[in-house]
Amino acid sequence: MENNQAIEILIIGAGTAVPSQGHSPASALLNTGDFLALLDIGPGTISKLPQFGIDAFKLQNILITHLHPDHVLDLIMFFLLHDINPHAREGLPLNLVGCKGLEDFIQSSMKLFPDINPPSFSMNIYEVSEDEIELNGVKVYSALSHHTETSVSYRINCKEKAIVYTGDCVRSPQLEKLCSHVDLLISECSFPDDQETHDHMNAKSLGELSEIAGVKQLIVTHLYPSALDVDIKAQIKQYFHGPVIIAEDGTSYKL
Fold first, then answer.
1. Is residue 2 part of a domain?
2. Residue 48 main-chain phi, psi, to 5 deg
3. Which of 27, 44, 125, 230 is deepest in the core (most CB within 10 A)?
């Protein structure tokens, strides 16, 4: 039975691969009390966890949207940390979820970095595209996000609430369905609405998707400098009439 703790969302990295103060590479944390999940694990994530009072050895679930460096590089640091402290995890298993190719990425990383070894704890690897899985009693749905050939977005249903984390994505019928009437959408918005893109969201595409899907609340992440140079919230609000939060590193929210 789930406890009564609120669902907590922490944006660890609200930015991209381009250095920008307050907007480091992608990562977010979802904590229900019973369920702890890291959503993407871009470079710098592991070193910032203590700043937010998060113990990396207590992570139960890591969900990766795609294998671009700004979303996955600190998975290498996660494994290295456990090599340095092999008993700190105390046998807690890990669910590692990601797009097709995740297992090859892990094996290739361990060949490239000889100090990284297969973990001593139990690790379940799930490669997903358009799937439904259960992690620690929580239903997780995935859909192709069309940023890359295999990239995915996730819908997490817990405590009678639904949260979608898009990673990098484009507007599509699949994504609209995944976001349908979601309580909270955590989505990238890489560019302002006058900047066309074929593999990311801009203010217009995100606003229109959120409005059509009936999203209740929106947290905006993965902002390139051109999106930070404008009033991106006002641009999104031209198309979406619900609450909008423009995230920075450390933005937290309770649902």
1. no
2. -90, -15
3. 27
